User: Fold this.
Amino acid sequence: MFIRLISFLVLAGFYVGVGTGQPLVPALIIIGDSVVDAGNNNHRTTLIKANFPPYGRDFFAHNSTGRFSNGKLVIDFTAESLGFTSYPVAYLSQDANGTNLLTGANFASGASGFDDGTSLLYNAITLNQQLKNYKEYKIKVTNMVGRDRANEIFSGAIYLLSTGSSDFLQSYYINPILNRIFTPDRYSDRLMNFYSTFVHNLYNLGARRIGVTTLPPLGCLPAAITMFGGAGNNTCVERLNRDAVSFNTKLNNTSMYLANKLPGLKLVVLDIYNPLLSMVMNPVANGFFESRRACCGTGTMETSFLCNARSVGTCSNATNYVFWDGFHPSEAANRVLAASLLVQGISLIS
Ligand SMILES: *[C@@H]1O[C@H](CO)[C@@H](O)[C@H](O)[C@H]1NC(C)=O
Ligand SMILES: *[C@@H]1O[C@H](CO)[C@@H](O)[C@H](O)[C@H]1NC(C)=O
Ligand SMILES: *[C@@H]1O[C@H](CO)[C@@H](O)[C@H](O)[C@H]1NC(C)=O
Ligand SMILES: *[C@@H]1O[C@H](CO)[C@@H](O)[C@H](O)[C@H]1NC(C)=O
Ligand SMILES: *[C@@H]1O[C@H](CO)[C@@H](O)[C@H](O)[C@H]1NC(C)=O
Ligand SMILES: *[C@@H]1O[C@H](CO)[C@@H](O)[C@H](O)[C@H]1NC(C)=O
Assistant:
């Protein structure tokens, strides 16, 4: 009954728990790429960073924390909805110490992928290294609260994995060798192997509630239209969207298989493809007026260091833009995505 009431409140869009103490789960652990990175790339030698204006201009204190958006990420809204009063700290930031770690941590790194080879191209933190950092995190938490309490935290926590776009957009599509060796379908199979191994490893480390996001409509990202669309063609690149749909079907299949195989595991696929496509195709119905051009710079390409304080053309208010930069949704779009994910992920909470 209690759980049902909570579910109802969450579904109804209340921020249950905010300010009232107990979050719905003990901790939130984030693993993945720039869509969920909250600053782990800030001190790395990589071009893929977002710790300078105009990134974060609508975040608290206009702080460029390393989030690849103008404001909050999907996971920030998720953390609020689950009743946390702070966001999981970027594990490689100064803030990641002491009791801050007890409600979770964020291990994600911009430009990482399912395939460690993708991450290495950009000196991002590979998925396997993120897992190693998580192991180190577990030791720190265990030392703080003791084994029993720590294990409750690890098994009760929600683990969110969000990655894969970089494997396609920043590796497969632009690498002639990969392109020759693998069809998009075989490349997806290859990524599924990495995914499956990753879930096994995370499960063996104690995770029991895992959410994994699908690929977005890759062909609708402004930079993808610029890079892979026909000359003068302003519409989503169908070929890329087909690849994403096919990948997502495999992700669904593989996840069902893993959930059946691993006792006690809740593994939920969180669809971001359809909610984002809906915003792109019907912006006005979703409260937006611009879904082709991103806010930052010319809105056709700029991301990371190319989206900076000197970029010419940056919009003054991103509220009605689906995309903040060439690859990443605006805070406004992230809010819509988070609402959808919360409903889809409800079984992870109960
Ligand atoms: C900006 O964010 C960083 C990293 O999250 C944090 O350490 C710092 O205190 C924040 N600064 C302000 C002014 O809020
Ligand atoms: C975390 O480290 C910062 C400086 O790096 C320090 O100011 C802060 O007190 C530390 N917090 C905890 C909880 O240890
Ligand atoms: C633009 O893209 C659409 C969908 O991918 C395609 O049907 C159309 O032929 C393209 N037009 C041009 C001029 O390339
Ligand atoms: C997904 O699983 C179904 C049923 O097990 C199977 O028929 C289908 O071929 C699978 N699709 C992919 C893309 O693996
Ligand atoms: C995932 O697969 C299951 C069973 O094969 C199916 O019922 C469900 O609709 C699929 N979900 C998606 C998003 O494809
Ligand atoms: C952006 O526009 C929205 C409504 O269109 C408004 O509520 C908001 O205050 C504006 N933000 C800024 C920073 O001007």
User: Anything to note?
Assistant: The first strand starts at residue 28 and ends at 32. Residues 172 and 311 are 28 Å apart (CA to CA). The chain has one domain: 24-288+332-349.
